[in-house]
Design goal:
Rossmann fold; five-stranded parallel beta sheet; 6 helices
Length: 149
């Protein structure tokens, strides 16, 4: 079984698309991901540890708690897929890619051609750079089965 962490933007269904495509191919993969409910992710710190007057400290509490999950998931994974979407700057995704690279994890980056220049350093650390979820799934299939069919 391959463990794959799905890092990146949370404003589209790209994770579900990858999981469905892998299921159709009967790939033996366990998927891990961050909390994708934006409100829960943003508010976990103040919900658990108490309110903050300043947004900086609210965000800091949430980021620290979320980092526990992220670090564990990346450490436990064999492959990290990092998706950069079109609408938002995903600084967290770039951080996840850097953390995965520091741990010498295999990284597959997904982004469109418009982001090529901005993500050149992230791309350089990746094992593969795909333009869509289908290419990423074909890579996973090849890794698991050694087949291009």
């Amino acid at each position: 079984m391959l463990k794959v962490y799905l890092a990146g933007e949370i404003h589209s269904n790209w994770r579900e698309e990858i999981i469905e495509l892998c299921d159709k191919e009967n790939l033996d993969i366990k998927f891990l991901s961050p909390v994708t409910d934006h409100e829960s992710s943003d508010n976990c710190g103040v919900e658990i540890l108490g309110e903050e007057e300043k947004n900086f400290w609210k965000d800091r509490k949430g980021a620290n708690i979320n980092s526990i999950r992220t670090k564990k998931s990346i450490k436990d994974s064999d492959v990290i897929i990092v998706k950069f979407g079109e609408k938002y700057k995903q600084w967290n995704a770039a951080f996840d890619a850097g953390y995965a690279a520091a741990l010498n994890k295999s990284i597959i980056v997904i982004h469109n051609q418009d982001h090529q220049h901005a993500l050149k350093e992230v791309d350089a650390a990746a094992s593969a750079v795909a333009t869509d979820q289908k290419q990423a799934v074909r890579i996973l299939k090849y890794v698991l089965q050694g087949s291009l069919k």
